[in-house]
Amino acid sequence: MKRFIGFIKKEFYHIFRDRRSLFILFGMPIAQIMLFGFAITNEINNVDIAVLDHSKDATTKEIINKISVSKYFSINQFIDRESDIETIFKKGKVKAVLNFETGFSKKLITNHKATIQIITDATDPNTANTISNYVNAILQKYQKGLNEDITIAYQIVPQTRMVYNPELKSVYMFVPGVMTIILMLVSAMMTSISITREKELGTMEILLVSPIKPIQVIVGKVFPYIFLSIINAIVIVVLSIFIFKMPVQGSLFLLAFESVLFIITALALGILISTISATQQTAMMISLMGLMLPVILLSGFIFPISSMPLPLQVISNIIPAKWFIIIIKGIMLKGVGVQYLWKETLILVGMTIFFIGLSVKKYKIRLE
Amino acid sequence: MKKENVIEAQNLTKMFGDFTAVNAISFEVKKGEIFGFLGANGAGKTTAMKMLIGISKPTSGKANVAGFDVFTNAEDIKKNIGYMSQKFALYDDLTVKENITFFGGIYGLSRKQIKEKSNNLIEALGLEEVANKLVGALPLGWKQKLSFSVALLHDPKIVFLDEPTGGVDSITRRQFWEMIYKAANQGTTVFVTTHYMDEAEYCDRVSIMVNGKIEALDTPKKLKQQFKVANMNDVFLKLARG
After folding, report:
1. Which of A354, B28, B125, B219 could cross-link B5 (Cys pair, CB 3.0–4.6 Å)?
2. ipTM of the complex, rounded to two decimals
3. Which residues of A touch B103 (CB under 8 A)?
């Protein structure tokens, strides 16, 4: 036991004397959560649009007014000719153009039908889609106001309710994802680098020749990172609660337990990576390519798994991060307990045992 | 009086698949002896040494190190030997004192022993002024002397040195060999691999490995007589060229 404590002390010296990794350890979680929380967002605000009004009558004025007072759009300029549409898009000043046909008011009264063309800049398809949805919503509201005193016999009125994240805040979606990435990165990458570092420097050989047992070496290398990852998880949760007002609906205790489980999964992966890589560079590349990209692309963090092609959906099942994201979204946003999450939890436990078993086997082969 | 054997190997063999890295080598090393283990790169020295220090299992044969069997008691062997590898292997980002404390700790020395030994060691090497500086800041020669002292920290019966003087200047090499002599005089057996043939002359006995086999084993003086040459370098060249 005394040997072990000495070993852990040494690991903390390594970590605290290496400014660069300290910076990665504690700077990155904060930077990422701020970036994802503030800069990257699916919401639209004050989008610049242009208006081409061929009618210039009371109705069009009213609609234009409604759009310009909404906080989503600001009218950048009025144009006069169809040919200006192309030019204005090319300049990149506006994201959308509203094109009212001639005689709008008259047509609406006599034909009960008038047309507005919504032209959006779809170089960014998500934004284009959102813009057209928002404009449609404003128009529908206006239309409803016009028809107030007329009763229509059959009417289907869809009422949409967004549950668990009613304001559709993107930060709610990013916090679980960022937490997953950070824990994966710190746990897997840092441990795999720190173990391969000993191999590269030749100190691993010295340790293997000493009476300290290989299992003690591995546990001793991993232990500080469990501790640091827990601190990171706490920092992320505290930041998201206090800065982004993100609620934690479920039990904090369960959240802590699942986070520690995921940290151990990631550490086991880190150990596995260290058994197959000879240098720190290799360990880092494998961690980045082998872990980071799948975590970002295939975990459901950014791209919904249900809209992926089938082979990718199947592959996503072997990504531990996918299960952890389901778990923390469940706890933080839906407030569900372990009775809904035991399946995902068991999968993570199973993966952890598998990774540890595999690395023990690899480690033994190397020693033979 | 005949001295006891601290290393005994009989037909020790290591195979990697079809390739025989070490081919049935047999030798003994006596207590307090400086035993030179020579051979070109790839001759099998490091593999043979790894079997003796308990981190690689022999394919066949027998070997006893410090009275323990390499097959069954590798863990006991580890407690009784010291090891210094050809790569410099202390932690650069730990201070001299922290390194000594750490390695003393993993060999199970008590706090008091560590304190006493580290003071003696720092004094003997004249490292008082840099005791609290990071090892990374020391010149290579000092690092190597420190590394050797750390390998001897727990008073092992045998110390294994894998090319300990690679890359240092001749004055430091000289000083290093003085340290080896001192350790041998105090009863520590020294098992050293090297490819500097002038260093082979300093050993009590040397063995020369070629392609996994021990082709010659005797005192440097007798080997030179046997091959009728003036120095160990020529002995080595004659053997290596067949």
Report:
1. B28
2. 0.88
3. 206, 210
